[in-house]
Structure formats: structure tokens, C-alpha cells
Amino acid sequence: MSAVAQIPASVPTPPPEPAEAGTTRRFTPYLLLLPGVLWLVLFFLVPMITLASTSLQTGSLEQGYQLTWRWANYTDALGTYREQFFRAFLYAAIATLLALIISYPLAYTIAFKAGRWRNVMLLLVIAPFFTSFLIRTIAWKTILSDTGFVADVMRGLGLLNLSDGRLLNTTFAVVAGLTYNFLPFMTLPLYASLERMDPRLIEAAEDLYSSPFTAFRKVTFPLSMPGVVAGTLLTFIPAAGDFINRRLLGNPQNTVIGDVIDSRFHVIVDYPTAAALSFVLMIAIVILVFAYIKRAGTEELV
Amino acid sequence: MTISTSSAGQTGADLHLAGLTKRFGTFSAVDDVSLTVPQGSFFALVGPSGCGKTTTLRMIAGLEYPTAGRIGIGDDDITDRKPYKRPVNTVFQSYALFPHLDIFENVAFGLRRRGVRNVRSQVDEMLALVQLEGYGRRRPAWLSGGQQQRVALARAIINRPQVLLLDEPLGALDLKLRRQMQIELKRIQTEVGLTFVHVTHDQEEAMTMADTIAVMNQGRIEQIGSPGELYDSPATTFVANFLGQSNLIRATVAAQQQDRLLLDAQGVRVTMLAARSQARTKNAYVGVRPEKIRISRGTSPPSAADGETGLSSMDSSMNGGNQLPGVVTDSSYIGVSTQYLVRTAWGQELMVFSQNTGGDDRLSPGDDVVLHWDPAHTFALDATEAIDAGVELEETAERPDPVGAGS
Fold first, then answer.
1. Residues of B in contact with A299 (CB under 8 A)
2. Beta carbons of B83 and A207 less than 8 Å apart
3. How many angstroms separate the CA atoms of B166 and B61, rounded?
4. CATH fold for domain B237-306+320-390
5. Residue B322 belongs to what H/E stretch?
6. Which chain A residues have a beta carbon less than 8 Å from that of B84?
7. Residues B237, B390: contact at Cβ < 8 Å?
8. Across the interface, do A214 and B113 touch by the CB < 8 Å criterion?
9. Helices marked H in chain A — which ranges?
10. pLDDT at residue B192, rounded to an integer
11. Is A3 helix (H, G, I), strand (E, B) or coil?
12. Is residue A121 part of a domain?
């Protein structure tokens, strides 16, 4: 309590000297940027440089690492783990698409039809964040377990192979887990862009000979594009690097690149390869994102 | 520029509303409205916010489904038709332009939805009509309010609807631009010859533009007629007060002499044409518009008995006129005219607009005056109505409600 009491005493600062007011004002923006810049330099720029350097080193933990500019680290890593890269992007893409398909009607309902339930529904979308990501994923193990309700029903409906009828430890489980975990990241930006939309635009479209479906295709959906782009990026990027879902819900045959990086760093202790893989993953995502934004043409929508 | 009016003329037809009613819960937003809008006319629905005019419009557009009643265009009953299947287009209050499309595509929207192939010439022609040539590639957000309004108009008119609905289209514009757009709208309406149904809370706007005005109040139509009819012969106190200003004096009908009616207004004899009385009983309000009253200095108190001859000092043209003594309590000079408030013997304040013709000496508060006006300019209303109906409402209805909220 005494610490709290101390704070107000330190708050008043001497007013700036009138003669220096101009200079002070000129430096104010930089001063305001300082904490952020320091943080980024310390925890983003420095580690990035370290990582880049590591990716071009040779050596081992015992003998120490030397920067030898060995670009082959990259070609080796890519050659060996092409499959895991491909799988990571494929799973992320499917999960993103599923999340979009699930989230769009949900966000649309909350934005236009929920009425007084709007806040409750938004809270329900955010509610999973109150629990840890890990715990939620572990919960999916129970949901999809061999003796669980979902598997039982699917077996009963003949949707699941009876002899090898499993849900857990399958690609399906991994994608389902990814979709579930990143759903709010899709729903919230979609909701934000739909909520901002003037519902009279839909009326105007219908007044101008658009059936409800055409009005959606020509007006609602294009106007929600900023939300679609933001949501897909917020889902795809973390999903592409995620290995928790794979580890808890998948099997050793469907490892993704995140797994490889994790094990290279922590288990095999092959820092250069791990660093090279991390860089490749990052660059691949940046390229994909840029290509996507260029295609979606969001800058025109603002 | 030439816009063919023949196509609209052949396909258009009168708009009929029959017993149109819309209830939200127990509240009747629109209550048994029946009217006919002749093809090619400029029709205004005017009333204070919350009177049901916008709801009526939305029902015609198909954006609201009526609780009861039918809507028809010519021989077509369109009551059950979806909005996108009606030969009706709307200019929305806030324009509702599509922000993701440029002006050209906004205007072409309706044509494209109907599968029209070569839209370029039509869109260009329409942009020329609303004086926005060369703006095709701009975004709605880059345009001023007046320009956006014209895009909204072009976007609706290009479809040659049988009825064009305008929902407070000028409400968001400032006064000067509004006046300009009123003239513009009227010009365009004359040029394209479409039926316009214009909803506004601004009685002046309605009077300026419309051929026919329907005054709405609390979901019902108070009176329909030409601007002149409504102004000169209001049927209810609401219309008398909502369209312009009126002096209403409580009176009783004393006698009828052929086509003339003699009334006793607080001890003052007033003569009027019997045909212009809406009074259903002996009790009535005698009404006269402020600009119809002439004001002159004087003190001679005409009594009800000798009112017609008592004022020898008045010039001969005043003979046979209605006269009323009073005291000026307020005078405000507004250039073209001077507005006086004159207190009568029974304490009521009457408003008088005296045109500034140059020669008159200006009266000051405290001056004794006599008001006189022609019996032909006198109207009478039924005394069972509220004397101040429609007075305050107009003042508070300056800004239109957000759509669907009330009116």
C-alpha cells in the first residue's frame, strides 16, 4: 500500500522552460516512441540478428559454434524437411478456410441479428481465452478420444472406419484443433468489419434489384474484405508455425515444421539447422502474406 | 442532354395505397393510409418526425411489410413483391452509396443487376444529368454531401423506376445547398418525367417542389392537396400550424348570410366565406395567415355590432373587411418584411407579417394598432382540435431521425 501512496508524489514534473518549449515539442514524438523502440530492439532485432548469425554457423554444442557463412544450412534444411513445410502450410490453409466458413455466419449473426444478445455472444467467442491454450488443446484429446462421444456417434453413423476407427492422433484431429484454437482470431476481425457496415447498404442493394444472395456477393462480402484478410492472416500465420496441436492431437507421421524446429533446438541441439528452418518459415510466411494482400487488394477498401 | 421521357410515360402508372397500416407491437406507425399518386407527379409526404412518413415510404419500397392494406402501381398489386422485384427505386436519407465501388459502378449497379450489357452510355448520360461528368472513377467518400446526394439520385433514376422514392434526400445538406438541390431535383423530375414520392419534415421544401402534398400526423393523413390549397384552406389546426404559421382565434358562429358566415371572435365580428369553414359545430377557430393581415396605426375600437362601418379613418378598400384592435408587443425587422406580435384585448398574441414596401413607418412595441384582413382570406377550423397542434413539432423536427427509428 505504501508503494501506491508514493506514486502521486512523484507524478508532478517541472513544467518545461518557455524558451525550450519549441525544442521539447519537437522531440516529444521520439520520446513517446522510445519505450517501444527499445523493446523492439532488445527483444526483436537483437534476437533476429543472433538467429540469422546462428543459421550460418557450423559446429556443435561441445566444440562451440563458428560463423562460417555456411549457406548450405538452408538448402540442407529445406531438402530434408520439405514435407513438414508443406504439411504445416496445408494444415494451416485448411484450418484457415474452415475457420472462415464457421466464423463468417457467426460474425454476421452477431453483427446484424443478435440484437440484445450481441454482447453475450461476443463474450462467448472470447471466453476460451480465459483458459490456457494448452489446456484447451488437451481437452480436445478427451473430446476426440477413442471412447468419446464424438467417435461413438461417428462410428454409429458409419463415418468412421470400424477396424481402425480413430479420431485422435489423426490429421483430422490436428486440423480440427487448429481450427478451434484460432477461431476467435477469425471471428473478431470479421465481426468488427461487418459491424461497421451500414445495414442500409444492403437495403440499397435490394432496392437496386439484388436478391439477398447477390446483395451479399456484391456488397456485404466485398465490404467485409478487410475483416476477411485480417482474420485469415491472424489464423494462418500462427497456425503455420504451431506444433502443439500436432503434438497433442496428431501422430508421428504428420509432423509439421514447428515440430522439427522445436526438436532441432531442444532435443537434437542442432542450432544452425533450427535457425535456418525458422528463417525459411518466416520468409515463406512473409511472401505468402504479401502475395495474399496484393491479391485481396485491401488498400482500396479503406 | 436529352432524356427520353416516353419510355417512362408508357410503362408508368399511378401509385395506389389502400388502407395501408403498419403496427409495431401496439404502436400504429402508419394507420389506414389511402392515397393515389398520379403518374409523373411530384408528390410530397410531409410531417413531423415519427409521423409515419418514412415507414410509408419503406412499405412502398418493400423494405417494410405492411400489417394491412395494399400497394399497387397501375393494375399491378406489388404488396407481396420483394423489394428487388419492384419497379421502384429509393434515394436513401444517408444516400447509402456503396463505399467499395466508384461513382460509375454505383450508378451502374441497378443496370448490372438486371443484366444490362452496355451501361457506359447510360451511366455517362445520367452523370451528365446530375452534373457530375468526369466523376465516374472517384469514390463516394471523396465527394461532398451535395455531390453524393446527386450520385444517389442518379443511381436510382437510371433504372427508370415507375416510382422514385426520396427519403429526406436533402436532410443532411446545409440550407444553401438544400435550396439549390430543391431546384435541381425539380428540374430533373420535370426532365425525366418520373413519379416522385418525396418524404420530408420540411414543409417549405415540400411546398417548393411538390405538385401534391399529403400532410401526415401520427400515422394518419391530415389533408391532401396542392400546396396552395393546403396553405390557403387548411382542413385541420395541425395543417394550419404545420404548413406556415396561422393565427387561430376561438370563435362562435353567429349567423349565416347566403355564402357568408358571421362569427363572434371574442367579441369581434369576423366575416368569412361559408365554404371555407371546417367547423362541425357552432364552435370554431377563426384563422388567418400572418401575411394576409394589414396593420395600421389607430385606436378606434370596432365592436362586433358596427365592425363593418366603424372605422371611418380607414381607406375605402378596407370596407367590408375584418378588423381587430390591438397593441404591438414585439416587432422584428427581417429585411423583406417586419414581423409584429400584436396583443388583442383578450390577451392573445397574433402574428402579422408586414411587407417592406418602403413607405410605411415602422411600428414600435406599445403602439395601438388595428389589424384588418379580407373575409376571403379567413378560414375556420373545428374547435374540437388542439389549437396548437403541429406548432412545436416543426421546431423540434429539424434533424431527421435515423432510418426506421421513428418517422
1. none
2. yes
3. 10
4. OB fold (Dihydrolipoamide Acetyltransferase, E2P) (2.40.50)
5. strand B322-333
6. 206-211
7. yes
8. yes
9. 2-10, 21-40, 46-55, 72-108, 118-126, 133-143, 149-156, 171-195, 200-207, 212-215, 221-223, 225-241, 244-249, 257-266, 271-296
10. 86
11. helix
12. yes
- Is pLDDT at A5 greater than 50 in this prediction? no
Given this model, what pLDDT does residue A14 score?
Answer: 52
Domain ranges for chain B, please list them.
6-232, 237-306+320-390
Q: Which of B113, B148, B167 to mutate to test the interface with A (most CBs of A within 10 A)?
A: B113
Q: Domain for residue A87, yes or no? A: yes
Of B83, B96, B156, the CB nearest to A198: B96
Would the CB atoms of B90 and A204 count as touching at under 8 Å?
A: yes
Q: Is B361 a residue whose pLDDT tops 90?
A: no
User: In this structure, is residue A64 part of a structural domain?
Assistant: no
- Taking CA–CA distances from A210, the nearest residue in chain B reads B84
| This prediction's pTM | 0.79
Chain A: closest CA distance from residue B87 (Å): 9
Provide the domain limits for residue A256: 77-300
Least confident of A117-126, B8-17, B265-274, B378-387: B8-17
CATH class of the domain at B6-232:
alpha beta
Quote the ipTM score: 0.79
Among the partner-chain residues A200, A206, A300, the one whose CB lies closest to the CB of B94 is A200
Residue A66: is its pLDDT beyond 70? yes
- Minimum-distance CB partner of A210 among B62, B113, B403: B113
- Compute the Cα dihedral for A197, A199, A201, A202 and give only its sign: positive
Chain A residue closest in CA terms to B64: A203
Interchain CB distance below 8 Å, A204 and B98: yes
CATH number at residue A185: 1.10.3720.10
Find chain A residues with C-beta within 8 A of B63's C-beta.
203, 206-207
The residue type found at B125 is E
Domain presence at residue A289: yes
| Nearest CA-CA distance, residue B240 and chain A, Å | 35
State how far the Cα of B377 lies from the Cα of B186, in Å rounded to an integer.
29
**Residue whose C-alpha is closest to residue B243's, from B257, B219, B225:** B225
